[in-house]
Amino acid sequence: MTQHQRLLIIDFGSQVTQLIARRLRELNVFCEIHPYNLLTDDILRGLNPQAVILSGGPDSVTRAGSPRAPQAVFDLGVPIFGICYGQQVMMEQLGGAVEGGHHAEYGRAFIAPAPGHKGDGIFAGLFDAGREEVWMSHGDRVTALAPGFEVIGVSPNAPFAMIADEARRFYGVQFHPEVHHTPRGRIMLENFVRLAGFTGDWTMAGYRDEAIRKIREQVGDKKVICGLSGGVDSSVAAVLIHEAIGDQLTCVFVDHGLLRLNEAEEVVTMFRDHYNIPLIHADESELFLGALEGVSDPEVKRKTIGRLFIDVFQRYASAIEGAEFLAQGTLYPDVIESVSFSGGPSVTIKSHHNVGGLPEKMGLKLVEPLRELFKDEVRALGRELGLPDKFIGRHPFPGPGLAIRCPGEITREKLDILRKADAVFIDQIRRHGLYDEIWQAFVAILPVRTVGVMGDGRTYDYACALRAVTSVDGMTADYYPFTHDFLGETATRIINEVKGINRCTYDITSKPPGTIEWE
Ligand SMILES: Nc1ncnc2c1ncn2[C@@H]1O[C@H](COP(=O)(O)OP(=O)(O)OP(=O)(O)O)[C@@H](O)[C@H]1O
Ligand SMILES: O=c1[nH]c(=O)c2[nH+]cn([C@@H]3O[C@H](COP(=O)(O)O)[C@@H](O)[C@H]3O)c2[nH]1
Ligand SMILES: NC(=O)CC[C@H](N)C(=O)O
Ligand SMILES: [Mg+2]
């Protein structure tokens, strides 16, 4: 457990709950998201939050059996901020009223100050231009305030768009201050954390020292093996753990036969050139490719790979005397997505191999020093630890590797073709100086053959899809707007240079509704 001042976000399943956390992290405030239905009084006491935010959510508080906050939250004596569903549920639980069936508001709206109110507390500094632009997304609305509350701001379809009980320091808004489209939402969050007494003690330098202390405390004099992929997360995890426990650490790089062209050699060389950390290069391609033969379902692929990873780690650990711990570069979004496995309000989209794919019983105990961080924070920590830019700037690469870029059945032939096409695409991106502008880029080989004509002959080969996205944390993403010239040149190069591909498409789906990977 961290020593930081902490803020608790109670999640009612909003699509943008993550953004509340991000905005707070930007203010150097540490926060944790907990699903409303998994929050016991014990957990609440253990967390000892200094303030609470109630998120939005898809349900309606007017529906019998809809989500509620644990009543104890309102007796903690700390400031509370309810957003949308969070505001509605707070009114419902504290003696106000909520109704459905009025005009819904989706998208942009303007809030005017309620008569006699300029706004104070968390609304201080607003309304200097007369009204505030906000982003709305609601069907229900508050129709009567709970005792102690007063109205601060109104919108055309929400008479209680901003409310406050200054005595208890309880606040509510009908709109979403955490989204980009509420331009001055940050002011409200900033006011809220300030009046709750947060000093902004969440910094990377502080995090590093604390993480090192905790790793030492957890591991003692035992040995640790760390799954190292060459990706940002596991490289940062390995260097951090090495700072903490030195030669008690051994890294294991698993070549599952699903890596990119020359990746194994590159990762091993890059790591050995920069760090004096023992590294085992485990060639397990026969094991993984054998187990995946004939498998085409994405979730079965993921679970198979997750299980084999652990088998391999356990095998290597048992060869090292005193190895009791497995370290992974698991991040906060992995953990949040995995919550759905234990019954949280969100839906499982994919089982990430390092969380959802873990077996129930495992001999090794986990060391996951990055569990509380978002990707961009991991990069900041990497810089803090002095990792070279070529580690920090690498595009993410998923643990299951090319398996999830080869929709349908995986064959060695398809993997070879895919590796070559992917290498050409990345080479193109580098040559045009675009690598650092793009968050992630890759090729997927499609499970269809199409007819082409090359050199006056007929071809019947695979089609492929190029994918390149911009993103901050992988949670949402947009396709990268390449020029047509770039796309044309790249398609020509792939089809000319890669035998087995005769058609090339560009995937322009954003996330959501798509996901970044194809499976
Ligand atoms: N080939 C591999 N060998 C050993 N461990 C791996 C391998 N691939 C993934 N892992 C483990 O699974 C964890 C999660 O993988 P993930 O891809 O999310 O992180 P990463 O590879 O470290 O970073 P990035 O997201 O930048 O690719 C890694 O941090 C690492 O511990
Ligand atoms: O280590 C990983 N194990 C996995 O099982 C996994 N699945 C997806 N990803 C990566 O996560 C980010 C979001 O991907 P999706 O939009 O496809 O869910 C993207 O960066 C993906 O590459 C994974 N990483
Ligand atoms: N975005 C939200 O939290 C919506 C709350 C509730 N479902 C409504 O429609 O009013
Ligand atoms: Mg990776």
UniProtKB/TrEMBL annotation:
Positions annotated as active site in the UniProt record: C84 (nucleophile), H176, E178
Catalytic activity: XMP + L-glutamine + ATP + H2O = GMP + L-glutamate + AMP + diphosphate + 2 H(+)
Matching HAMAP family: GMP_synthase
Positions annotated to bind ATP: S229, G230, G231, V232, D233, S234, S235
Subunit structure: Homodimer.
Physiological role: Catalyzes the synthesis of GMP from XMP.
Pathway: Purine metabolism; GMP biosynthesis; GMP from XMP (L-Gln route): step 1/1
SUPFAM superfamilies per record: Adenine nucleotide alpha hydrolases-like (SSF52402), Class I glutamine amidotransferase-like (SSF52317), GMP synthetase C-terminal dimerisation domain (SSF54810)
Keyword annotations: ATP-binding, Glutamine amidotransferase, GMP biosynthesis, Ligase, Nucleotide-binding, Purine biosynthesis
Protein name, per record: GMP synthase [glutamine-hydrolyzing]
Organism: Paracoccus acridae
GMPS ATP-PPase domain sequence ranges: 202-394
